[in-house]
Amino acid sequence: MQENNAVPNTTLQPGTHVYPFTCQIPQGNFPSSFHGVHGSIIYSMKVEIHRPWHLAKEFVTEFNFASHIDANQPHLLAPLAGSNTKTLCCLWCASGPISMTVCTERKGFVPGELVKIICELSNGSSRTVTPHATLIQKQMFYTHNKCNRRLQMKNLASVDGQPVNPSSSEVYSDMMLPIPPNTTLTISNCPILELDYTVDVSLRIRGSTDLKVLFPIVLCNIPVYAPQPPPPYQ
Fold first, then answer.
1. How far apart are CA 170 and CA 175, in angstroms?
2. Could you give the CA distance from residue 144 to residue 192 in angstroms, rounded to a whole number?
3. Predicted model pTM
4. How far, in Å, CA of 202 to CA of 177, rounded?
5. What are the backbone dihedrals phi and psi of residue 167, each rounded to the nearest 5 degrees, phi first?
6. Domains in the chain, start-ordered, CATH in brackets?
7. What is the C-alpha to C-alpha distance for residues 95 and 63, in angstroms, rounded to an integer?
8. What would you report as the CA-atom Rg of the chain, rounded to the nearest whole angstrom?
9. Which residues pair with 134 in a beta bridge?
10. What spatial distance separates the first Cα and last Cα of the chain, rounded to whole Å?
11. Hey, what's the torsion of the CAs at 121, 161, 198, 139, to 10 degrees?
12. What backbone torsions phi and psi does residue 192 show, to the nearest 5 degrees?
């Protein structure tokens, strides 16, 4: 992206020398560093040493780059909510409906935070159901013309809620889903690679498919600012 040349015609005598230098990263909307299954985003710095009558000596080192993603943007501060319902059937008998309404406090989070998930559950069936939440990472790799793609899914963290007994209604269950501290930030500004995160909240029902509600979240590196308390009254 940028080249930084040292002072020309500098001759170093034999021995150990320390030469400090800086390199300004250009302004731009660059994606964060990432190492994936089918592709990577790598930033590196190359240093060359030229000696008379010798081939240039080259040293390359990789460094980590993180885009600025601010969790204080209005659309990332807005809460998320969703619901789903189903009725279990067994031969000619149908049980009461099972419903789940789920909400989170916001859409933007920072690695290392806990995602608070609030579930309102109603279990009209004859079976015990258990809420469960999973943080899923989705890696999508494209060719340049996006004619071909490869998808890689990975579960990063999970948590179980309290079981809900049969014929129970208006049961509230809170779950705290951890985001691993070293998780890569969301990547949406690269033409050949996307990195997204989803919170999968499911209601596990014995002998039946899970009832699911999915939330897309964005992983940021600028946390939500805590509101400052008003000054004391004089």
1. 16
2. 6
3. 0.81
4. 13
5. 55, 45
6. 74-219 (2.60.40.640)
7. 58
8. 26
9. 158, 200
10. 55
11. -150
12. -120, 5
**Both tokens of residue 222?**
């600028």
Contact present, 115 and 225 (Cβ < 8 Å): no
Q: What is the DSSP string of 29-89?
A: -PPPPEE-SS-EE-EEEEEEE--TTSPPEEEEEEE------BTTSHHHHS-EEEEEEEEEE
List Cβ neighbours of 130 (8 Å cut-off, separation of 6 or more).
Answer: 160, 161, 162, 163, 164, 203, 204
pLDDT tens digit string along 174-190? 899 999 999 999 999 99
Are the beta carbons of 66 and 189 closer than 8 angstroms?
no
Q: Tell me the CA distances in angstroms from 108 to 190, 202, 212, one per residue in order.
A: 19, 21, 21
pLDDT tens column, 52-108: 888 888 999 999 999 999 999 999 999 999 999 998 876 555 678 899 999 999 999
Is the distance from CB of 69 to CB of 219 less than 8 angstroms? yes
- Pairing of the two strands 80-90 and 211-219: unpaired
For CA atoms 160, 164, 166, 172, the dihedral sign is negative
Contact between 41 and 190 under an 8 Å Cβ cutoff? The reply is yes
Tell me which residue has tokens 């789920």.
Answer: 102
* Of 234 and 154, the one with more pLDDT: 154
Span 10-69, pLDDT tens digits: 666 788 888 787 888 888 889 999 998 888 999 998 888 887 888 888 999 999 999 999
Q: What share of the chain is helix, strand, coil (3-state, %, to 5)?
A: 0, 50, 50
Distance of CA 103 to the CA centre of its chain: 18
